[in-house]
Design a protein that fits this description.
Layout lengths: L15 H18 L29 E5 L5 E3 L8 H14 L4 E7 L4 H13 L3 E8 L4
Parallel strand pairs: 1-3, 3-4
Antiparallel strand pairs: 1-2
Length: 140
Amino acid sequence: MHFFVRKHRGTPTVIIVALIDVLIVLLIFLIVTTTFKQQPALRLALPESTQAKKTGADEAAPLVVSVDPHGNLRLGADVVPISADQLKAELLKRAATTPDLKLAISADQAAPWGQIVKVMDAAKEAKINIASAFMKEAGK
């Protein structure tokens, strides 16, 4: 039998130059990505007013149109679904009585996009500004 004699390996060495290079790259990355707090040049103590009005305090709340996941439209706090044609007629009627009326669209996340577009078209036809549109998660 012939046995192979293992060669004796030397102890592994750590290459310091490569570690320093990596450390410098990390240091440069941290310096570049760090945001520095900017100190204001002049500190002011502004006076307070007890007679000031909050912005939007005298504005009326917007009219809310809800769109559920099945595409049913609801105007205001109504629980009865309304059709797109009925919605258009109701928006025209309310825009005639309240010229600065605003509309908010509350749509479910799974609501058909076509229904939302119909609501927006009806609002444009009635010349009503859309105050906001927000989505709700399905099931909530």
